[in-house]
Design a protein that fits this description.
This protein is an alpha/beta fold and 186 residues long. The protein has eight helices and six strands; from the N terminus they run ααβααβββββαααα. Strand 2 (89-91) and strand 3 (94-95) form a beta hairpin. 43% of the residues lie in helices and 20% in strands.
Protein backbone atom coordinates (compact mmCIF):
# COMPACT_ATOMS: atom_id res chain seq x y z
CA UNK A 1 0.00 0.00 0.00
CA UNK A 2 1.36 3.42 -0.92
CA UNK A 3 2.13 6.18 1.58
CA UNK A 4 -0.88 8.19 0.31
CA UNK A 5 -3.20 5.22 0.78
CA UNK A 6 -1.90 4.64 4.30
CA UNK A 7 -2.45 8.32 5.17
CA UNK A 8 -5.99 8.15 3.78
CA UNK A 9 -6.82 4.98 5.71
CA UNK A 10 -5.42 6.37 8.95
CA UNK A 11 -7.15 9.73 8.55
CA UNK A 12 -10.42 7.93 7.86
CA UNK A 13 -10.10 6.15 11.19
CA UNK A 14 -9.47 2.64 9.88
CA UNK A 15 -7.36 0.19 11.76
CA UNK A 16 -5.25 -2.50 10.12
CA UNK A 17 -7.68 -5.27 11.13
CA UNK A 18 -10.37 -3.67 8.98
CA UNK A 19 -8.42 -4.26 5.80
CA UNK A 20 -8.36 -7.74 4.31
CA UNK A 21 -5.20 -9.23 2.90
CA UNK A 22 -4.79 -8.55 -0.78
CA UNK A 23 -6.93 -5.43 -0.93
CA UNK A 24 -5.74 -2.76 -3.27
CA UNK A 25 -5.20 0.91 -2.70
CA UNK A 26 -8.56 2.46 -1.77
CA UNK A 27 -8.09 5.67 -3.76
CA UNK A 28 -7.21 3.99 -7.04
CA UNK A 29 -10.86 3.43 -7.99
CA UNK A 30 -12.60 5.77 -5.55
CA UNK A 31 -14.50 7.53 -8.31
CA UNK A 32 -16.69 4.42 -8.85
CA UNK A 33 -18.20 4.96 -5.39
CA UNK A 34 -20.68 7.78 -4.81
CA UNK A 35 -23.09 8.99 -2.16
CA UNK A 36 -26.20 8.01 -4.13
CA UNK A 37 -25.03 4.37 -3.89
CA UNK A 38 -24.31 4.67 -0.15
CA UNK A 39 -27.17 6.69 1.18
CA UNK A 40 -30.97 6.61 1.11
CA UNK A 41 -32.90 9.82 1.77
CA UNK A 42 -34.55 8.14 4.76
CA UNK A 43 -31.08 7.53 6.28
CA UNK A 44 -30.50 11.27 6.75
CA UNK A 45 -31.62 12.90 9.97
CA UNK A 46 -31.17 15.96 12.15
CA UNK A 47 -30.95 14.92 15.79
CA UNK A 48 -31.96 17.04 18.73
CA UNK A 49 -31.83 14.33 21.39
CA UNK A 50 -28.23 13.09 21.26
CA UNK A 51 -26.48 14.21 24.43
CA UNK A 52 -23.65 11.66 24.40
CA UNK A 53 -21.78 9.33 22.07
CA UNK A 54 -23.74 6.36 23.44
CA UNK A 55 -27.08 8.09 22.84
CA UNK A 56 -25.96 9.00 19.32
CA UNK A 57 -25.14 5.35 18.62
CA UNK A 58 -28.63 4.36 19.80
CA UNK A 59 -30.22 7.00 17.58
CA UNK A 60 -28.16 5.75 14.65
CA UNK A 61 -29.32 2.20 15.38
CA UNK A 62 -32.95 3.32 15.18
CA UNK A 63 -32.29 5.31 12.01
CA UNK A 64 -30.67 2.42 10.12
CA UNK A 65 -33.30 0.02 11.41
CA UNK A 66 -35.91 2.22 9.74
CA UNK A 67 -33.91 2.94 6.56
CA UNK A 68 -32.24 -0.44 5.94
CA UNK A 69 -34.12 -2.87 8.19
CA UNK A 70 -30.96 -3.63 10.18
CA UNK A 71 -31.24 -4.88 13.76
CA UNK A 72 -30.78 -1.74 15.89
CA UNK A 73 -29.23 -3.64 18.79
CA UNK A 74 -26.63 -5.34 16.60
CA UNK A 75 -25.83 -2.03 14.90
CA UNK A 76 -25.25 -0.27 18.23
CA UNK A 77 -23.15 -3.19 19.48
CA UNK A 78 -21.00 -3.15 16.32
CA UNK A 79 -20.50 0.63 16.49
CA UNK A 80 -19.53 0.54 20.16
CA UNK A 81 -17.13 -2.36 19.52
CA UNK A 82 -15.49 -0.37 16.70
CA UNK A 83 -15.24 2.77 18.86
CA UNK A 84 -13.49 0.73 21.57
CA UNK A 85 -10.63 0.20 19.10
CA UNK A 86 -10.19 3.96 18.75
CA UNK A 87 -12.43 6.96 18.28
CA UNK A 88 -13.75 7.73 14.81
CA UNK A 89 -13.94 11.49 15.36
CA UNK A 90 -11.68 12.79 12.60
CA UNK A 91 -11.66 16.45 13.59
CA UNK A 92 -13.35 19.73 12.66
CA UNK A 93 -16.64 18.55 14.18
CA UNK A 94 -16.85 15.42 11.99
CA UNK A 95 -17.07 11.75 12.99
CA UNK A 96 -17.02 8.73 10.67
CA UNK A 97 -18.27 5.79 12.74
CA UNK A 98 -18.22 2.54 10.79
CA UNK A 99 -18.75 -1.14 11.43
CA UNK A 100 -19.27 -4.48 9.74
CA UNK A 101 -22.75 -5.90 10.19
CA UNK A 102 -24.32 -9.24 9.31
CA UNK A 103 -27.20 -9.17 6.87
CA UNK A 104 -25.85 -6.64 4.39
CA UNK A 105 -25.02 -7.27 0.74
CA UNK A 106 -23.41 -3.88 0.14
CA UNK A 107 -21.96 -0.89 1.98
CA UNK A 108 -24.66 1.51 3.21
CA UNK A 109 -24.53 4.79 5.06
CA UNK A 110 -26.43 7.15 7.29
CA UNK A 111 -25.89 10.87 7.83
CA UNK A 112 -26.67 12.66 11.06
CA UNK A 113 -26.49 16.39 11.79
CA UNK A 114 -26.58 17.18 15.51
CA UNK A 115 -28.17 20.38 16.70
CA UNK A 116 -25.85 20.33 19.75
CA UNK A 117 -22.28 19.07 19.29
CA UNK A 118 -21.19 16.18 21.53
CA UNK A 119 -17.83 14.93 22.77
CA UNK A 120 -16.57 12.17 20.48
CA UNK A 121 -12.94 11.90 21.64
CA UNK A 122 -11.95 13.41 18.30
CA UNK A 123 -8.33 13.79 17.28
CA UNK A 124 -8.57 17.58 17.64
CA UNK A 125 -10.68 17.36 20.85
CA UNK A 126 -13.46 19.37 19.21
CA UNK A 127 -17.06 18.22 19.71
CA UNK A 128 -18.86 16.56 16.81
CA UNK A 129 -21.98 17.83 15.06
CA UNK A 130 -21.66 15.89 11.77
CA UNK A 131 -21.57 12.10 11.66
CA UNK A 132 -21.53 9.98 8.54
CA UNK A 133 -21.91 6.34 9.49
CA UNK A 134 -20.97 3.43 7.24
CA UNK A 135 -22.01 -0.20 7.55
CA UNK A 136 -20.36 -2.92 5.52
CA UNK A 137 -21.06 -6.63 5.08
CA UNK A 138 -18.97 -8.90 7.31
CA UNK A 139 -16.94 -10.03 4.29
CA UNK A 140 -16.63 -6.58 2.69
CA UNK A 141 -13.41 -5.97 0.87
CA UNK A 142 -12.20 -2.84 -0.80
CA UNK A 143 -15.71 -1.36 -1.27
CA UNK A 144 -15.79 -0.51 2.45
CA UNK A 145 -12.48 1.33 2.15
CA UNK A 146 -13.55 3.15 -1.01
CA UNK A 147 -16.74 4.33 0.70
CA UNK A 148 -14.86 5.46 3.78
CA UNK A 149 -12.31 7.30 1.65
CA UNK A 150 -15.08 9.07 -0.32
CA UNK A 151 -16.84 10.20 2.85
CA UNK A 152 -13.61 11.29 4.56
CA UNK A 153 -12.45 13.23 1.51
CA UNK A 154 -15.83 14.95 1.12
CA UNK A 155 -16.26 15.90 4.77
CA UNK A 156 -12.72 17.28 4.95
CA UNK A 157 -13.96 20.08 2.68
CA UNK A 158 -14.88 23.06 4.93
CA UNK A 159 -17.33 24.52 2.39
CA UNK A 160 -19.30 21.27 2.17
CA UNK A 161 -19.45 21.03 5.96
CA UNK A 162 -20.59 24.66 6.14
CA UNK A 163 -23.41 23.91 3.66
CA UNK A 164 -24.46 20.89 5.70
CA UNK A 165 -24.44 22.81 8.97
CA UNK A 166 -26.49 25.64 7.44
CA UNK A 167 -29.28 23.37 6.16
CA UNK A 168 -31.14 21.49 8.90
CA UNK A 169 -33.62 19.88 6.49
CA UNK A 170 -32.94 16.14 5.84
CA UNK A 171 -33.90 16.30 2.15
CA UNK A 172 -31.65 19.30 1.60
CA UNK A 173 -28.81 17.51 3.40
CA UNK A 174 -29.33 14.47 1.17
CA UNK A 175 -29.27 16.68 -1.93
CA UNK A 176 -26.04 18.40 -0.83
CA UNK A 177 -24.32 15.06 -0.23
CA UNK A 178 -25.49 13.37 -3.39
CA UNK A 179 -24.70 16.30 -5.68
CA UNK A 180 -21.20 16.59 -4.21
CA UNK A 181 -20.31 13.18 -5.64
CA UNK A 182 -19.57 14.65 -9.05
CA UNK A 183 -17.18 17.20 -7.52
CA UNK A 184 -15.39 14.47 -5.53
CA UNK A 185 -15.03 12.11 -8.49
CA UNK A 186 -13.09 14.68 -10.51
Amino acid sequence: MSYTAVRMVISAGLTPHNQSAGETCPHSRASSMDFAKLLKPEAVKVLTSASSKKRLMQDIGELVNHAYDLDAGKVVEALIARESLGPTGVGHGVALPHARVDGLDEVVGAFVLLDKPIDFSSVDRQPVDIAFVLFAPENAGVEHLKALALVARTLRNPSICAKLRANPDPLTLYAILTEEKSVQAA
